[in-house]
Amino acid sequence: TDPKNSKKFADIKNLKYWMAVDWYNGGMEHTTLHVLYSRFWNKFLFDIGLVPTSEPYKKRTSHGFILAENGEKMSKSRGNVINPDDIVKIYGADTLRVYEMFMGPFDQAIAWDTNSISGSRRFLERIWKLQEKIAKVSASRTVLDMRSQMSKTVFDTTTTDKLEILLNKTIQRVSNDIEAMHFNTAISAMMILVGEFEKAKVISQKDFENFLKILSPFAPHITEEIWH
Fold first, then answer.
1. Considering the entire predicted model, what is its pTM?
2. E strand or H helix at 223, and its extent?
3. pLDDT in tens, 142-192
């Protein structure tokens, strides 16, 4: 918080600005020692009046292991380590990110399955193709104006209403799931929404932009490209 301060332990303004950490996440195999080091020392420093908070962080979570394909722990000695760089070269970084978040609950040990990565790749390819369905209507226009312009195309207002309702439900679901670290169910909800987008003949640009916002934490590269 104040590493170059040679006069006192740390400036109280810096301590209050940086502490306590909102969220500390780490591997489950390090939980005991990490809690011992960070929490014990913070408690000690608080007791002698050097830090303003009794706890070093507001929330502490642990993530599960990604195991080898046979269910064993990955290790160099066993020769079963998956190199992320190799996966990125073949499938892309976004595919790897989506697959890791979708493969199972964040706090549980899940076995790696190279064959399943292609499903995440296909999901992103489906999203890329949705651009063909976008009706470029100004976001400032009313829904009525939008429907009027889009009626030049074969357009079902009932379908649009259903899509907008589902989109809003998906935004809420993904938002809550991210906070709860339920990334796999967040992606599952977006997959359902993409399936409904594919059934529609036309998608409003505003709806697609809002979808890209909730997708971006999971697949930032393709999302940025589509956004531009």
1. 0.77
2. helix 220-227
3. 455 555 554 544 445 566 788 999 999 999 999 999 999 999 999 999 999
